[in-house]
Amino acid sequence: MSGLDVGGLSVTIHGTAVLTDVSFKMAPGEILGLVGESGSGKSMTALALMGLLPRGAEVDGRAVLGKTDLLSLDERAMCRVRGREIGMIFQEPMTALNPLQTIGAQVAEALAIHGGGARGAGELLARVGLDPDRIGPGRYPHELSGGQRQRVAIAIAIALSPRLLVADEPTTALDVTSQAEILDLLCDLVRDEGMGLLLITHDLAVVAGIADRVAVMQEGRIVEAGATEAVFRTRSHPYTRALFAASSHVPKRIAAPSGVPVLTVDGVRRHYPGPRKGLLRRGAPVRAVDGVSLGVGRGESVGLVGESGCGKSTLTRAILGLDALDAGQVALCGDAVMPPVPGEVRRRMQVVFQDPFGSFDPRWRVDRLVAEPFHLTGYPEDWRDKVAHALVAVGLKPRDMEKYIHEFSGGQRQRIAIARAIVIRPDLVILDEAVSALDVRVRAQILDLLADLQGEFGLSYLFISHDLSVVRSITDRVLVMQAGRIVEAGPTERVLAAPEHPYTRRLVAAVPVIPAGWITPQSA
Amino acid sequence: MRWPLSLIVGLALSGVFAAAALVSFVWTPWPVEGISVASRLQTPSLSHWLGTDHLGRDILSMIMVGARTSIAVAVVAVGVGMVLGVPLGLLAAAVRGSWLDDLVMRGNDLIFAFPSLVIAILITAVFGPSAVNAILAIGIFNTPVFARVTRGAALSLWTLDYVRAARVAGKGRARISAEHVLPNIANLLIVQGTIQFSLGILAEAALSYVGLGAQPPLPSWGRMLADSQTMISFAPHLAVFPGLAIVLTVLGLNLMGDGLRDLLDPRLRRAR
Q1: What is the least distance, in Å, from the CA of B101 to any CA of chain A?
Q2: Which of A61, A184, A351, B8 has its CA 20 to 30 A from that of A137?
Q3: At what angle do helices B182-209 and B59-94 cross, to 10 degrees?
């Protein structure tokens, strides 16, 4: 058998166990999905196979590929294995390629290092679906979209027809439509070339779509493994059940939209100067937001969905009054939002950002961080009590005020971000990809929290996201944005169940789903 | 956390000279104004550890007092550079892309375009040679360095979510620069300050070497070198010791800057 056989793989870093007794087998041409939350040891398993563990790591066990035990090889021997026997694809296509070399040269480099393969660089790029007439080998990475760059990364990984392809979250950074295409391509390559694919992901639906077998990891151990459908249907381990429950979680909402408008956006346009076409001339301006109108009522949750580059972020900045508009108007409870926004208007809206790690000044304590919006209203006498209340409302403890932000996990930080947003009791909270970076179970908790807070304080939410599944569970209405315009709007259930616009249909079709028959509730 | 070796060595070297400068306020082995032609040009001995110069002054005492001059000039010059340059850099980053940003940065380029020592000589030649004018000249050339470093680091902070959150909290650009941006780039400025400090000591030595820095009878390392050059064939120690003082101080400060960067930069810290 020439597949991969991993047995009793254990890794400790500076004495801390990160992998414990990980064992799995892969046949040639098989797709194994490795699922788990962040910190579960998925990526560490891949790095151990590639011999790329961080310094201070000690490995034990075996990982036999064909006839060689990968763990017993020294660095020189491992260099010959990497690329030739095992190819790897990383999450971030933006940084995986060298910006100074053409894509053809980068594929050719992979070939040259190992003394050439059966195919040339041009042929490989064509194989991964890059049309030589449109995206030739002479292009540079910055000329390509994220999905196209990921294709180049795949071309490099398969250049020498390795026996094993390791893909670590290959589609997490991509839009849903690119994700579907890349998953198709990977599936296709595995079938055609007979290589094994170790697909590492946090997304159960992705695994359900393409993996033959699945292994669920928790805290450095494989807690459950088997054929994908069997594992997904039976869910014998409690952790697997918890993951499933969380990924299809629908928060209970006391929905009471009153219809009184909180936010109205009317014919907003935002243009950027076009690219230079010579010393003095410029191309036509880029219409990042091109005549968008929308409204959010009191107590209502509205989703704004679109892929990267559709103008969501520009629109968000315009609504927050951080950028001037080229045309149109944004109004909050009837008052125009125009920079410089008066504090009296600004205090009615707050925002929660995507990245729980970049949202806080690392040098400030939590009390000062959460209290920052009081700048708009003036610090009341009892501001510390108000901060404590906000922290309690998001499920933290008042004494957490004394800590610094690095003492909290990603989910806790997102709670603190929400506490900061609600501490001055705004009418509208804009959630800019606010749950996209969180693990499924944490995401479910945060969505519950948001639903509770909405009921308690009568908040309105504007959810901005590329992820349709999040929007589905928590919004009343959804707007679909493409190339700066709203192409479809309506009640969430209706839009997602029966999309009318072709773009919406493409989006909905591209979302990976777990087959409905697999997830009938268990009587566990 | 372990301190990098370069930081320890750098701190020790700079510490020796800083200590010598401090001690010179209360005690020197011999009075530096004490001219004694009878004991001139002595080689190092027990009574004069580093020998005496052509006027019979004790070299060790002069180096100690000279350290005072060098450090004072460099400290104030770097201070002037920071006080002017950092706010300019913060301003340019806060109004990125506007005409004000262009004005500040092109003004920087203008100063960078002139060889600094030549302009320093011009300034001291016009306003008269003195320690104060040397400070002013070196300070002016430190300004664009700090402005550019500050702007570069601040620009990357302005894209972070916590700065956006502060804007949503209604804070103005000046307030955000002071509360969020400056504290988070302070590490970088301290490191840059250390390196500019060593360059300041070199510049002061160069200015006093050509007679445009501190004036007699105040001793200064650069002028000690200048005075020694005609006697270098028969009294090399006159040149060697002040030269060593300059080299070791600058080396110490550079090592300290490198070490501080290693200690304060989280990316390097992780790599170690």
Answers
A1: 18
A2: A184
A3: 140
